[in-house]
Amino acid sequence: MTASGSFVHQMATGELPREKYLRYLSQDAYFLFHFNRAYAQALRLAADVDEQRVFHELIGGVLDELKLHSAACEKWGVDVDAVEVHAASRAYVEFLESLHGKSSLELVAGMIPCMRLYAYVGRYFLTRADAGVDGIPDPRTSPYAEWFEAYGGDEMESLACRLESLLPEEIEDERAVDNYVEAIRLERDFFAAHA
Predict the structure, then answer these.
(1) Of 99, 93, 97, whose CA–CA distance to 176 is shortest?
(2) Thiaminase-2/PQQC domain: which residues (predicted)?
(3) Which end of the chain, N or C, is less packed with Cβ atoms under 10 Å?
(4) Nearest of 36, 22, 11 to residue 93 by alpha carbon
(5) Which H helix or E strand runs over 28?
(6) Strands, DSSP E only, in 57-116?
(7) Mapping DSSP to helix (H, G, I), strand (E, B) and coil, where does residue 153 land?
């Protein structure tokens, strides 16, 4: 997925059909529930109180995301609990669950791409719209403005940076690198499933 990928670009312009957005949102709510479980696992593996604080903050961030998703689904009449889970969502959750019991480094490396991608894409559209970049719509005028405000804001960027701060500058653990790469692939597949 790129920032100008059709799904997110259509969200920014408001051209994305509501049904597609709601399908994505319900799948994302399913994913976030399990993503938060992975944070809980990371909290358990934290090396010290400072790391515990970081994971506590990240868990709170996901709970806030879930509130936004729940409010949007309720607003548009979607029962999140009745949604059939898409194969791309299931694959991503299975990957996260496979990281439970691994090292903190392996787990965190497999979680960072989600945080970084969402923070980047949300901010990409907001900052380019503010700068008047040609072809970049202002997502704040879209029916999906809440998504861009949540993911493009300072809080999401701060949370992504906090998670990244837990990794060493150079990762020598090949499994951690593999998890990072796999998470990127799963993010791409997740968005492609909704395009």
Answers:
(1) 99
(2) 7-191
(3) C
(4) 36
(5) helix 18-45
(6) none
(7) coil
